[in-house]
Write a structure and sequence with these properties.
The protein is built from one helix and 29 strands. The chain is mainly beta.
Length: about 375
């Protein structure tokens, strides 16, 4: 929803722990009135060791048919998110280089779109882009840029925002990872005016989780059903609903938190845990059941994207896995020399993967 083969074991281990900690709990809160929340201490099993290395797949420096490396001559640091509004126009955000990059040729080449952030350049961030070119990034704060202008930090009245941002139209968007004071109850934030103002949207009473519960990632189906990962739960809402609920059943119960969720069509949704167990819902999120396991339970930062009910992709360390049978079985689609972080498709024939060392890979068969 990250480890370089060529680096030493110590460096790889450091990068892995960095990505897990930041992506699971981007706790850059209001300095004047910080909330009382337990510190981020990653106690999830498996995060104190190196990721499992695959020995199968394509050669490290080659790519299978349809995939190619994007031209990013000055982009060398971690690319933490990539998102396309259509098959030709897309955006990527980096750490270190501190900028949002834009492509207008399907991801083959990239140019800096905005390098000016309101605060410190983000270390690891998610982004959302509306069809009318409003760019939002979230890494503990939420920032907004319109048509390439410098970013402006948005106010949430001293309330926490972090983890993920998602827009379903030019005006309507959501931010995850909020907490309402003084109760400490978890909430989601919603805007209907393009990000100018935000209101807490209904969630059944849930405590604000310690960051160790996992990543909070959004997915929305084409019909408007919404989903968010929340530790061992999936929060969901039907298109016509305003209140978010926790799934009634996850069968069997997860042993590690959900990392990523994808909603390709109708009431179909998929979610994957940090140890690669894939679950599916056929009723809009009310119930999830296990359908398969990726790579015999590899542990790492996993990001999931299904293009339809049968075909899906998932990043795991330096590999991209693919399923064509609805998540029951998974094979390596490509293997790269650097860690892969996020995967995004606009349709079955247009896809992108980003990762460390300036990696952006494009897919057009």
């Amino acid at each position: 929803r990250c480890f370089m083969r060529v680096l030493s074991a110590l460096a790889a281990c450091f990068l892995f722990v960095f990505i897990i900690l930041i992506s699971c709990g981007k706790d850059h809160h209001d300095e004047d009135n910080p909330p009382q929340i337990p510190p981020a201490t990653d106690t999830i099993p498996g995060t104190d060791s190196l990721p499992t290395e695959d020995t199968t797949g394509t050669a490290i420096d080659s790519l299978p048919a349809g995939w190619q490396v994007a031209t990013t001559p000055s982009l060398t640091s971690l690319v933490s998110d990539v998102f396309f509004t259509n098959n030709t126009t897309g955006y990527a955000i980096t750490s270190g280089d501190g900028g949002v990059w834009k492509s207008t040729d399907g991801g083959l080449s990239w140019a800096i779109n905005s390098a000016s952030f309101a605060g410190t350049p983000p270390q690891l961030a998610n982004l959302a882009v509306t069809p009318d070119d409003k760019v939002f990034i979230v890494d503990g704060w939420l920032e907004r840029s319109v048509s390439g202008a410098p970013f402006q930090r948005l106010s949430f009245d001293n309330k926490i925002v972090n983890n993920d941002v998602y827009f379903t139209s030019n005006d309507t968007g959501y931010v995850s990872g909020g907490v309402v004071r003084p109760t400490g109850q978890y909430c989601l934030w919603k805007t209907t005016d393009g990000g100018i103002s935000w209101q807490a949207t209904g969630v059944q009473p849930l405590p604000y989780p310690n960051p160790t519960v996992g990543v909070h990632e959004f997915a929305f189906s084409p019909g408007g059903n919404g989903y968010e990962t929340y530790g061992s739960k999936i929060l969901y809402k039907k298109a016509a609903d305003t209140t978010w609920l926790a799934s009634a059943a996850v069968t069997p119960a997860v042993t590690q938190p959900f990392n990523s969720v994808s909603a390709p069509e109708g009431d179909i949704a998929f979610a994957v845990t940090r140890n690669g167990v894939v679950y599916k819902s056929v009723d809009g999120g009310e119930n999830f059941a296990k359908v398969g396991v990726i790579g015999n339970g590899l542990t790492g930062y996993l990001n999931l994207h299904f293009v339809d009910e049968n075909t899906g992709y998932c990043t795991v360390n330096t590999a991209l896995y693919k399923t064509t049978d609805g998540g029951a079985t998974w094979q390596i689609a490509l293997k790269w020399k650097y860690a892969l972080i996020e995967v995004h498709f606009t349709d079955a024939e247009h896809g992108w993967v980003c990762g460390t060392n300036g990696t952006i890979l494009t897919y057009t068969p």
